[in-house]
Amino acid sequence: MTSPYVGLLVGVLCVSFGSILVRWAGAPPIALSFYRIGLAALCLAPMAALPAARAWPRLAIRPRLALLASGVALALHFATWVTSLSYTSIASSVLLVNTAPLFAVGFSRLFLREAAPRIVLVAIAVALLGAGLIAAGDWSASPNSLTGTLLALAGAVCLALYHVAGRGLRDAMPLTPYVFAVWGVAAVTLAVMCAVGRVPLGGYDARTYACFGGLALVPTLGGHGLVNRSLRVLPAPTVGLFLLGEPLGASLLGYLFFREVPSRSTFAGGALVVAALALVLWQGRPSRSAT
To answer: I need a surface site. Which of 205, 218, 235, 245 has the fewest CB within 10 A?
Structure first.
């Protein structure tokens, strides 16, 4: 029987390819985001559309609003993070967007009144220091790179809101219909953004359409699918620690395909960010004394 760790490692590798496929595609970031989440939702439709439609009338008003908010936040996450890759390096972008768990802790304390251990608050301060180092390095390289830094952080904030808004919805709906519903809301939100911004959804070359499909299949369905599967058999902190490999994987792929070498400030700031995330995940580990 294959070890669950093998599937988790493959999932992390698949997720790491997201930024590479974005760079390869010749389309505006909003269109890329729409196709990524829209095609992924379409793939789930045969098995999830009917159960989602049946579950919707049984939801109370608050869960319905939470589901809609979660989908909109996910759309904004993709829109901001994908756009950040047009301004800054893959390493900086992926490192910063992965600070989402730290923002989620803050939002949980603010909106859900969930207390955070002191060590987690220290970790957030360390991560912010790391993000500051990355931003300072981007600014010294190019003022435009700072735009990418801010967009990546905005992507992290939106991803955290997506997780916090959707908390508890997986208990109200089966997992696959829940994912389909949230992805569907995100796709509709991105379609509206494309219409308002007059972003074309057609007329691209074959390579770009292949990248659209690749984004839906590899990092979205494949990567996140394997990660979600791993969560059924492995502790969440263990899975989270493995996901810290995404910035490393994406940075290595960025060097292999685009010869992007992270700056010293990115290395230093990234080390602080990863250390802070690891501290938060370690804090949430199951007790060793539990049997």
So the answer is: 205
